[in-house]
Structure formats: C-alpha cells, structure tokens
Design goal:
Blueprint lengths: L2 H8 L3 H9 L6 E2 L6 E2 L2 H15 L4 H8 L5 H31 L7 H13 L5 H15 L2 E6 L6 H14 L4 E5 L5 E4 L2 E11 L6 E9 L2 H28 L1 H33 L1 H4 L3 E5 L13 H9 L3 E15 L6 E9 L2 H5 L6 E3 L5 H5 L4 E5 H7 L6 E11 L6 E17 L10 E4 H10 L8 E6 L5 H10 L17 E5 L1 H40 L3 H9 L4 H29 L5 H26 L4 H5 L4
Parallel strand pairs: 10-15, 12-14
Antiparallel strand pairs: 1-2, 3-7, 4-5, 5-6, 6-7, 8-16, 8-17, 9-10, 9-13, 9-16, 11-14, 12-15, 13-14
C-alpha cells in the first residue's frame, strides 16, 4: 500500500506518518525499483495502535517501548491510567479555583487570598501546571547547557570521541546528528547544537586515569550576531568605496582610462601572438608539402618502376597521407574487321585527383555510380568519350581487354612488356577527352589491377607515386626513412633509368614561411616580460601619484578610529575596482574590433589584474608607512 492508501485506512496525515518514521516507531519496506514506501497490514496495525495510544496521551517513548516489546501493552495502559488520574486530580484543583473566581461578586479580585489558597491546595497534592511547566522548562534548559559523563573506553581519536557521544545519545534516547567531526566536534542532540571535549582525570579512589566527556551547548545566537556584525562592516566598506569614487571623480576616471588603454595594448599584443601561432599551426594545410617519386635524373615522373618495398614503406609511414599512385598498362582490343588488335593506354588510379590532372572535365557516371563506388569495385572502367565513339559503345557496355604490364629489362636499363591477363570491364563512367592531352583511353581501379597482378603471380611496380607530407615539422624524420630505403634526391648527372629511385620534396616555400613565422613568434614572446613589467609599474605609479593628494583623508580616518587594515582595504579596493572596470572596457574593445576572441580577451584581462594588483599592493604598502601624526600636524 502507498502513503495515500495508508492515510485513508488509518486517518493519520502524511506528515504524522513521516514523523513516526523519524521517531523509529514505523519502518515500512521500500520498493527496490523506485524506493517508494510499501506499507503492509502490520504497518497499518502499528499506526492504528500508535493513534490509539496517542489519543490516550501516552508519550512517544512509552509507545516505542510497547511496539518494541519491552513493555506489555496492558502494563503501559495501567501506568497511563495512573498518570491520567494524577493529572485529573491536579487539574481538579485548578477547576475549583476557576469556578470560585467566576462566581466571585467582588469588583476587585483578592489576588493574595486566592494565591494563599492555591498554595495550600498545592501542599495537599494539587498542581497548577503552568508555573510548574515553566520551572521544568527552565530547569531542563539549564541542565542541558552542559553535560558530562565518563567513558569506559579510551578516547584518543576523533572517531573514538564521536562513538562515545553516540553511545551517550543512545542511552539517553536522544537523536544524534554530527555537524562537524574532529577532536572538538559539533553535533545536535534532539535538534540542539552542542560541542564536546575530553578531559583526562584520575579516579579519587583507585587513582586510575579515566576520560570525562564534557558536552557544552553552543550559543547559536552569538554566531548569528557575529555574522551580522561582519556583514554590516562589509556593507560599510562598500559604501565608503562608492562615496570615495564619486568624490574623486577625476582621479577615478584617469585610473580607469589608464587601465583600459593598458588592456587594449595587451589584447592587441596577445591577439597578434595568437594569430601568428594559429597561422603557424595551420601552415601545413595552407602550404602543403608534396613529394613525388622520379627517376635518378629527375626527368621522369610517370612511367616509372617503383619497387614494392618502397610502396610498403610509404603506406606504413606515419609522416605521409593523401597518397596518389598509378599503374600504367597496355591493353589490346579487337579493331573490327582488320583482324589486328588495337593498342589502348590503360591506367589504374587510386584517387580522382589523378584523373583531374588530365583535364578539368567531370566524369559522366552511369546511374548509381561515383568515385567511391568505382575505386572499391572490380571489372569496371571509365572510358574516354573518343574511345567509346570509335567502339560504338556507351555506359553499361563491356570492354574486353588483353593486358600487358611493364617490367625492368634484362639489362636493367630499359623496359619490357609482359602479358598480364584478360580483363572484361563494364563501362560505368565517361570522361570527355576532346581537349585533354595524353589522356588514357581506359581507367581502371588500382586495387583491381593489383588483384590481377596477384592472381597471375606477377610482381607489381607502381608507375607513379606521390604524397603529401602529413606533418612537415617532422620532415627530417621522413627524409631519414626514405634514405634508409635507398632513395635519394634528384641528381641530373646520374645515368637515366626508369626506376623510381629519387624523391623530390617541394618544401622550399614551406620552410621559408615557417622560418619567418618562428622569428615573429620569438620576437613577440620576447616582449611579454617587458609588457608585464610595465603593467606592474603602472599599477604602482598610478595609485602612488593619485594617493599623494589623499594623505590627509587617510590620516583623518585613522585618527577617528578606523583601523589601518580597514583603511588599506578601502583605498586598495578603490583602485582595483576601477582597474577591473577600465580593463573590462579595454577587453570589450579588443573583442569588438576582432583583435582577439572572447576567451583570449578575458585571459588578458585577468592577467592584467594579477600584475596590476601587485603594483597596487606595493603602492599601498608604501602609502601605509607614512606618519599619521606628521600629516595631521602639517609637518609631512
């Protein structure tokens, strides 16, 4: 059953049910999924029993004894009956006096007479509850202001002290809650705040050492008064700062203006530094470094023979990306009724950028085809428009090719052609080759050509290879890897061959730009200590000069009883607040003009305040060393 249902069954409000739970009179189970209370029939019976006993005015502690089985219900009822009878006798005396006073016909009530009578009745067992309850309340408050007890266990740690206080609270049936642990902990007993301390004593009889725990009630009102006093002092300081800024309006404006200009200069400086650093980081993208494989003399870039070991090294290198690779083949295709095969140039590519080098025209794709699908497929091709016109073919038709590949000649100088295999490829794209020079008639996916080499047991050589240096800052590491693989720079005087044994890295422009930017960054960073030193000097000189005209004001404040610390805080805060305001305006100007981003501007503003504060602190230290008596006597 939920709480609403239990309210309806017992007639007890939700708040009272929660209160009984806090007093450990009721402990319903909780749903494991949502932690909602789930009351049982036994819980309903306990609540009804609690309600019945409370209606008989039985105390909660007595009810807890009944529910826990420590006291039988009938025994508790008998005890409560006796208490009620006693209360009835006590109240009867008050009822009799009230009746007599109501029937009294006198215009002026005899207070002394009634008091004497009530005191006599009290001696006979009658109790007038109001005054007695007042005495009890006062006595209880006085008795609970300080409590002490002896601990049977050693109390050497904060945990042992807390455990001893918990044990005392349990024995006294008081609700304990720790507020601040430690060797002088703060805690509550039945909602009242206490603090505890341990006292080492010796037993008067045995002489053995023992620990006495002293629990003292904390004066909550004292803390509130102290807090209120501190808050009032803070408000007074704030008010004084505002009054001084308005009174010395011209000096305040000058202070804020100097701060604003200082932050503007710093923001422009930092903006330039960050912009240069950002350009330096983006330099590899702005000026990409390309590397191309060539023959030893540098005359050939295409039609090469690039060894498989070199290819493996390039693809495994962490310093390269955007690799462009081609494989040039010779294809034979039947030339109609002449009986002779026609040769066509076939090129395998691994990216569209290679095809774009032949011309700017886009490929006209068959429906559903694009570069991504083409490069990952087999038995497909892109054909030149002129070639298809000669063959009378179109997209969707198949082209049958007998392929040959290039290998090093036996003497290692020239090239030879060897049969590679037969390929039947579907035309999935058409390339306009009307105005392009040296355009291949057939373009195949490079992976498909490599697969053809593997199937025919032939060694694959790339015809061209180029890449972009991924991180030009590690260019030397890349050059070392190339050198270890037997590659070198282009040397025109060497013997001309078809082997791709040299690499040309186009890094001149990048290196020049990088060197120039590094010099600019170094120069800008060298100015930073001087700028910060200027800020510190400004933070010292500006307050120092502006405070010279306020020496009498400071001396009078001290003479009237204002403490040195408070005076220093007021004058110091004036300059810092003005610097903060002026610096914030300067940072905003930098953001508006696009010199720096918001994050950089805020960082510069905070950095300015840090170093400006150091200067102000030095100025205030010097200002506070003046003689108050000399200023008041006009001798300083």
């Amino acid at each position: 059953m939920n709480t609403k249902q239990i309210e309806e069954l017992t007639g007890i409000t939700r708040q009272n049910i929660r209160y009984y739970e806090r007093q450990n009179l009721l402990e319903p189970v909780r749903d494991t999924q949502n932690a909602y209370r789930d009351y049982s029939e036994e819980d309903v019976r306990r609540l009804k029993l609690i309600k019945m006993l409370r209606m008989l005015d039985m105390p909660l502690k007595e009810i807890e004894q009944v529910l826990n089985g420590n006291v039988l219900l009938k025994e508790a009822i008998v005890r409560q009956q006796e208490n009620l009878a006693k209360q009835q006798k006590q109240l009867q005396a008050a009822l009799e006096v009230c009746t007599d006073i109501r029937k009294d016909k006198s215009e002026r009530i005899d207070v002394d007479g009634y008091l004497d009578r009530m005191e006599q009745m009290a001696k006979g067992g009658g109790v007038f509850a109001g005054i007695v309850d007042d005495y009890k309340q006062v006595a209880q408050e006085e008795s609970t202001r300080q409590i002490s007890f002896y601990s049977e266990q050693p109390v050497n740690t904060a945990g042992a002290l807390e455990q001893a206080v918990k044990m005392y609270a349990k024995e006294q049936h008081k609700k304990f809650r720790m507020e601040r642990p430690g060797m002088y902990p703060e805690f509550t007993l039945d909602g009242i705040l206490y603090t505890a301390a341990r006292v080492l004593e010796r037993d008067s009889e045995s002489g053995e050492p023992r620990t006495r725990i002293v629990i003292s009630r904390t004066e909550a009102g004292k803390g509130k008064k102290e807090e209120k006093r501190k808050r009032r002092a803070i408000f007074q300081v704030i008010y004084s700062i505002g009054v001084n800024i308005r009174r010395h309006r011209a000096k305040s404006i000058l202070n804020a203006a100097i701060s604003m200009m200082a932050v503007v200069v710093l923001v422009f400086y930092y903006g330039s530094l960050e912009s240069t650093r950002r350009q330096f980081e983006e330099l590899p993208e702005a000026i990409p470094v390309r590397a191309s494989f060539m023959n030893a003399t540098g005359e050939l870039k295409n039609g090469l023979l690039v060894r498989p070991q070199v290819l493996d090294m390039v693809y495994a290198s962490p310093y390269v990306w955007k690799i462009q690779e081609t494989a040039e083949l010779v294809g034979h295709i039947a030339a109609g009724g002449s009986g002779e095969d026609a040769e066509v140039q076939v090129v395998g590519v691994n990216c569209p950028e290679i095809v774009q080098e032949y011309g700017e025209e886009e490929v006209s794709w068959a429906e559903g085809w694009d570069w991504e699908r083409f490069l990952g497929s087999e038995h497909v091709c892109i054909a030149g428009e002129s070639f298809l016109e000669m063959q009378g073919a179109d997209t969707g038709d198949y082209v049958s090719l007998s392929l040959e590949h290039y290998q090093p000649a036996d003497l290692g100088v020239g090239l030879k052609r060897l049969a590679l295999g037969f390929e039947e490829a579907e035309v999935v794209g058409i390339l306009n080759d009307a105005e392009a020079a040296a355009m291949p008639e057939i373009i195949l996916p490079l992976d498909a050509i490599k697969q053809l080499y593997q199937e025919n047991g032939e060694t694959y050589f790339a015809s061209s290879l180029s890449f972009t240096v991924k991180d030009p800052m590690n260019l030397n590491a890349l050059k070392q890897d190339l050198k270890e693989e037997g590659l070198s720079s282009v040397v025109p005087e060497l013997t001309d061959t078809y082997m791709g044994s040299a690499v040309r890295i186009e890094d001149d422009v990048f290196i020049q730009a990088a060197i120039g930017m590094e010099k600019n960054i170094t120069l800008l960073e060298a100015f930073l200590p001087f700028l910060l030193l200027i800020v510190i000097l400004a933070g010292y000189l500006v307050p120092h000069l502006l405070l010279q005209g306020r020496r009498s004001e400071y001396a009078i404040m001290r003479a009237l009883g204002t403490g040195k610390k408070r005076c220093t805080v007021i004058f110091f805060a004036e300059h810092i607040l003005l610097a903060m305001a002026g610096g914030a305006v300067g940072a905003a100007i930098g953001i508006v003009f696009g010199t720096a981003g918001a994050v950089t501007a805020v960082m510069v503003w905070l950095l300015f305040l840090l170093f400006y504060t150091l200067g102000v602190a030095a100025a205030m230290w010097m200002f506070g060393k003046m003689s108050i008596a000399a200023v008041l006597s006009h001798r300083d």
